[in-house]
Specification:
Number of helices of chain B: 3
Structural class of chain B: mainly alpha
Order of helices and strands of chain A: HHHHHH
Radius of gyration of chain A: 20 Å
Helix content of chain B: over 70%
Largest sheet of chain A: none
Largest sheet of chain B: none
Shape of chain A: elongated
Helix content of chain A: over 70%
Oligomer: heterodimer
Structural class of chain A: mainly alpha
Number of strands of chain B: 0
Largest interface: A-B, 61 and 59 residues
Radius of gyration of chain B: 21 Å
Number of helices of chain A: 6
């Protein structure tokens, strides 16, 4: 059977992302990748925790003085909401409603872009204060951890946008359903990492 | 690669049942989202309230873990069938993550 064959909401499988062997392989392979991502972020978190507030003697920068929680709160809400909108997109994929899926993904992308905009503003602000990447062990660990997450957001945005453009005319089929599903998993994982970043870096940094 | 999909055209009852089930599931997802927002609000307020770090730090860490579990099991569907291999991969990652963080914290601080 051709992967590009047309479906109706009645003939669309319950789990379109795993209806083909290719889809099943993508699904398993992607979870293996997420396990690897967990290890990557763990090493960055561990480095950050070890080097937090450490730097040259007389360093004026501390987590308490540097971070602004209202900004972090807004960023958290944006990313959390974008996670829900991508759940909506997958809900419409299951119901074989391509337009609604694309629309919800568009909202997801906008929310993600807003998050990234705030992050760039935040980093720019720190650099202007003199808290540059090579200022201290603390600054390097901070920018590497949070920046790697930001890079993931950027990649996620590019990925979803490309999927949306490439499949705009094709519509939904069993060729692209696993692609959309896996991209949405990636987007949720970005939110998972952010939950630990806002808790461990920002909130615990504001304590004491 | 074999791309043969099982084609089954649902009759009306099956179709309506499937629609209703996915609508129910979506309602559950919105509830999950509300709980996640609520947990985030508690975490931020706990820090703002200015209690001792010894109490607040473990609480907000626990809130983060609960929120991540909700994200993984509901938003990422790990609670559904067919996620045994996925769980194995993820938990292996989590185990290594835990050991890494523990090692860095103990070696460098003590």
């Amino acid at each position: 059977m051709d992967l590009n064959s047309k479906y109706t909401p009645q003939s669309w499988p319950e789990h379109p992302e795993q209806a083909t062997l290719e889809g099943k392989n993508k699904f398993v392979g992607f979870w293996l990748f997420l396990g690897g991502e967990t290890v990557l972020f763990a090493s960055l978190f561990a480095t950050y925790l070890a080097l937090k507030n450490k730097g040259p003697s007389g360093m004026e920068f501390t987590t308490q003085g540097l971070f602004e929680l209202p900004l972090v709160f807004i960023m958290t809400m944006l990313l959390l909401t974008s996670s829900l909108t991508s759940v909506y997109a997958m809900y419409h994929m299951r119901n074989y409603n391509f337009k609604a899926m694309q629309a919800w993904l568009m909202i997801t992308v906008l929310l993600g872009a807003a998050f990234l905009g705030f992050e760039i503003y935040e980093f720019n602000h720190y650099v202007h204060l003199g808290f540059t990447y090579d200022q201290s062990a603390f600054s390097t660990a901070f920018f590497t951890l949070v920046g790697t997450h930001g890079l993931h957001v950027l990649i996620g945005l590019g990925w979803i946008i490309l999927l949306m453009i490439r499949n705009a005319k094709r519509g939904l089929n069993l060729y692209n359903a696993p692609k959309y599903y896996v991209a949405s998993l990636y987007w949720h994982f970005i939110d998972v990492v952010w939950v630990f970043i806002f808790t461990v870096v920002y909130l615990m940094g504001a304590l004491e | 690669m074999a791309n043969n999909a099982d084609t089954h055209v649902k009759n009306r009852t099956e179709y309506e049942y499937s629609r209703r089930r996915s609508a129910d599931e979506m309602r559950g997802q919105v509830t999950t989202f509300a709980i996640m927002i609520f947990l985030t609000l508690i975490a931020f307020s706990a820090v703002y309230a200015g209690f001792s770090a010894y109490y607040v730090a473990p609480i907000i860490l626990l809130l983060a873990v609960v929120q991540v579990v909700l994200q993984l099991y509901y938003f990422m569907h790990m609670s559904q069938k067919g996620h045994e291999t996925a769980s194995m991969f993820l938990y292996t990652g989590v185990l290594i993550a835990f050991i890494t963080v523990l090692t860095f914290l103990t070696i460098i601080w003590w």
